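Students often ask what a holo structure prediction actually looks like on paper. The answer is less mysterious than it sounds. You provide the chain, you provide the ligand, and the output is a string of discrete structure tokens encoding the 3D arrangement of the protein together with iron/sulfur cluster.
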Amino acid sequence: MISRKVITNLAHDVGFDLVGVVRAEHIAEEHNRFKEWLLAGNSSTLSYLERNVEKRFDVSLLVEGSRSVVVCAVSYLSPYSRGYTEGATAKIASYALNRDYHITIKSMLEQLALALKSYAPELRHRSFVDSAPIAEKSYARRAGLGWIGRQSLLVNPTFGSMMHLGELVIDVDIDEYDTPMEGIGCGSCRRCVEACPNGAILENRTIDTRRCISCRTIEREDANSDVPLHGWIFGCDVCQSVCPFNQHAPLHRNQQFDPIITPEMVGAESLETMSEEEFKALAKDTPMLRAGFERIRANARKN
Ligand code: SF4
Ligand code: SF4
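The corresponding structure tokens follow.
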């Protein structure tokens, strides 16, 4: 058994802004809603979303012997997250100007696990960041980190939605588990729905990935889609930058999430003149590298 208080202190020590804990169990309500979303065809070309659905919503199937899920969040909100001026081209989602969060968060989670082992030496763990088959937003909501906004992302009243999530699944019980946040939410606000340039936000707080710029600029398999990109070349921040919670949120505190490139460095004109090697040297530590030079340049040419 580990104390909730110890987990909070250690998570803050390694650089997370928020932490919550839930039991490693099936989350049926979210599971059913996801199945309906898949049946409606909204996953489009993102076929990986259709794999391991049972495990995604029941972490005990994913990690044998698991007892608890420690859900952590850290803000990456920077001045670039506040949006671009009208008519800007070669826009990049602000998280992609930073070091690849998969690497940074994984390292933070492993540091947290190591620290926890000094309190429970027998503890076994697995850490997950985004790409693994775990319904992290749903577990985060259950762990009291925020609510699911109309744009389908987790929103926290203090830190907004520009946060990365990471989970540590452990085989140890915790003395006190969290419950979902109550009494706050989107209310009557619909700014993200109204601001989405492609009308991709559905009424049931999910996204039509066929029309979402974030998906269409990053996923390789649909590079020829004719969905308008509205100046974005990698990702899209529109539904988040208009959110009042992001406008009032503090900038990120963890220096590991300081931007390492600027949008100007990979502007449309620069992309036309730079070589693939130069692009790789520039973007090598950022999430943009995974999309690849040709894809990013093709996106820029569509704008
Ligand atoms: S990321 Fe952009 S395109 Fe996708 S839902 Fe948000 S505003 Fe719409
Ligand atoms: S913009 Fe408004 S509706 Fe959308 S997530 Fe933020 S608070 Fe909710």
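The first helix runs from residue 4 to 13.
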